[in-house]
Design a protein that fits this description.
- Pfam families: fn3 (PF00041).
- InterPro entries: FN3_dom, FN3_sf, Ig-like_fold, Striated_Muscle_Regulatory.
- This is Fibronectin type III domain-containing protein.
- Keywords: Carbohydrate metabolism, Glycosidase, Hydrolase, Polysaccharide degradation, Repeat.
- The chain has three domains: 57 residues; 89 residues, Immunoglobulin-like (Sandwich), CATH 2.60.40.10; 127 residues, Immunoglobulin-like (Sandwich), CATH 2.60.40.
- The N and C termini lie far apart (84 Å).
- It contains two helices and 23 strands.
- With 313 residues, it is an all-beta fold.
- Strands 1, 2, 3, 4, 5 and 6 form a six-stranded antiparallel sheet that branches. Strands 9, 10, 12, 13 and 14 form a five-stranded antiparallel sheet that branches.
Length: 313
């Protein structure tokens, strides 16, 4: 309940408000004394459907004024409305569901939202998640790639009343695609801090877990066409997503070093990647040899098609 300031303070500043709840003329509970800057209060512990009279009187240094009265009958909270703008974003083993809360809270503050994922073929419940307000998204895992599901979303208010359901269209989880090396090349540039010559190895991995691959690239001195690798000249790059993945790209990685820190190539030879390995931690692996990489290229930052073999005199 709320009230406005009285038209007159009786010549002395208001010091408090006294709120009395009556049922059939009898006071219910203790009188409430509120500070002068509190123009509202919430009365609890009343019976739904019973009419009460509420009296509010202002107090000042000389006493308590004539109360203002109003009558009201509390009602039980009803079911909230259904969430709106519900959408799903399926992955390969889970789905992210987003929504907007209902505008009708059923007469009590919304407290949480529940998301159910059900099998589209038999309506069986697969998994569920409940998130507190004002959260408007939930990610649920443990689903099966290639299977079809739908989501049910509903709000619950502070009285524990479950709201109307919003049901999504069916969605099908994707099938994971294995990681694969799509391109690799060497880019000659300069160190931005020292202007010293620098070599960068760039590569791109495609597949479901393209941004989570760790592995190793082995280089050996070969003839200019990549043949006759010299095993004694072997050197390797170890890479992982934290150190080498280029955030914001479509599966691209990079490794860079000053040219002076890379073994020199000899006359008529080039450094060629002779093996490329990678793994995503989920039993998906990549393994390529020289022949598989020989014709690969990748677009470097200068807009050129970089090839995997390079000289470092």
């Amino acid at each position: 309940m709320t009230w406005a300031l009285p038209a007159s303070d009786g010549g002395s500043a208001i010091t408090a408000y006294v709120v009395t709840v009556l049922r059939d003329g009898t006071a219910v509970g203790e009188r409430r004394t509120l500070p002068p800057d509190a123009p509202s209060t919430t009365v609890t512990g009343l019976s739904n459907g019973t009419t009460y009279t509420i009296e509010v009187a202002a107090q000042n240094a000389t006493g308590t004024g004539t109360p203002a009265t109003a009558s009201a009958a509390p009602r039980a909270a009803t079911a909230p409305g259904a969430p709106t703008e519900v959408s799903t974003k399926p992955g390969t083993t889970g789905v992210t569901v987003t929504w907007q809360p209902p505008t009708d809270d059923g007469g009590a503050d919304l407290s949480s939202t529940t998301v159910e994922i059900r099998n589209a073929s038999d309506d069986s419940l697969i998994t569920t998640a409940t998130v507190p307000m004002p959260t408007k998204t939930a990610s649920l895992d443990g689903l099966t790639a290639g299977s079809t599901y739908y989501a049910i979303v509903y709000a619950v208010n502070s009285s524990g009343v479950e709201g109307s359901h919003a049901t999504t269209a069916d969605f099908t989880l994707g099938t994971p695609s294995p990681a694969a090396l799509f391109g690799i090349g060497a880019w000659k540039t300069s160190n931005p801090a020292t202007d010293a010559p620098m070599i960068c190895i760039l590569w791109q991995i495609n597949g479901t877990n393209q941004d989570g691959i760790s592995g190793q690239i082995h280089f050996q001195l070969t003839a200019e066409d990549g043949s006759d690798p010299d095993a004694s000249s072997d050197w390797a790059i170890n890479y992982d997503p934290n150190s080498n993945y280029l955030t914001g790209t479509d599966g691209q990685y990079a490794w860079c070093a000053d040219a002076a820190d890379i073994p020199h190539s000899t006359s008529n030879t080039v450094w060629t990647p002779v093996s490329f390995t990678g793994a995503d931690g989920n039993s998906n692996t990549i393994s390529l040899d020289t022949a598989a990489m020989r014709d690969m290229t990748i677009m470097d930052p200068d807009g050129n098609n970089a090839r995997p073999a390079f000289t470092n005199p």
